[in-house]
Amino acid sequence: MPIDPKTAESFLAQHARLLDRRRYEFLFTGGAPEAVLAAVDGYRNPDGGYGWGLEPDLRAPESQPGGALHAFEAFAELGPHTTPRAEQLCDWLETITLPDGGLPFALPITDRSGCAPFWADADPTTSTLQSTAFVTSAALRVAAHDAAVADHPGPLGPSTTASSGSTRWTPHRMRSP
User: Fold this and answer.
1) Whole-angstrom Cα distance, residue 57 to residue 42?
2) 62: closest CA among 137, 124, 134?
């Protein structure tokens, strides 16, 4: 079945968020990377993380691992263009990485309105393979063209947890030798 770009553009105009429209423009019509970054910034918090519904089923304002995933996805699509926001997101992830080196599925939410129960009821004190893997894999895509992310010393960089001795999930450890 052939794809009709005009139909896709019409659907996006009627139903998509501004971010999704800017990503489409960048990927398919020569749109500017700055437009994608401006749209992503609408979901950014002062702590360096992302919330505000960047993950559509998690419309809480607080920064969340799910928001980190979607921000990294947008940053990855922009390669070879880079943004300091990607490194700042790594800094934020360092603040929420649990002692075992993993990420929680979600952090505490002050207002459950607009949040799917599986996000709102998540245990923020337990690392999950799902969140750790999806954020790390998206960060790896960014690290392929962004040295600041590839070399970040935090949870995505080459480090170990001193208190437990466990190895953090890192792009460096997931790469082939």
Assistant:
1) 17
2) 124
Judge whether 70 and 50 are in contact, CB under 8 Å.
yes
- The angle at the Cα of 116, spanning 45 to 64, to the nearest 5 degrees, equals 25
* CA 48 – CA 63 distance, rounded (Å): 8
Ordered per-residue pLDDT tens for the chain, 177 residues: 888 999 999 999 999 999 999 999 999 999 999 999 999 999 999 999 999 999 999 999 999 999 999 999 999 999 999 999 999 999 999 999 999 989 999 999 999 999 999 999 999 999 999 999 999 999 999 999 999 999 988 755 544 333 444 445 454 444 444
Q: What's the CA gap between 122 and 53, in Å, rounded?
A: 17
Distance CA 23, CA 74 (A): 7
- The helix (H) or strand (E) run that includes residue 164 is none
Task: Tell me the domain boundaries of the chain.
Answer: 34-174
Sign of CA dihedral 106, 111, 115, 117: positive
Cα separation, 54 vs 104, in Å, equals 17
**Sign of torsion over alpha carbons 65, 118, 122, 111:** positive
Lookup: tokens for 133: 């893997």
d(CA 110, CA 108): 7
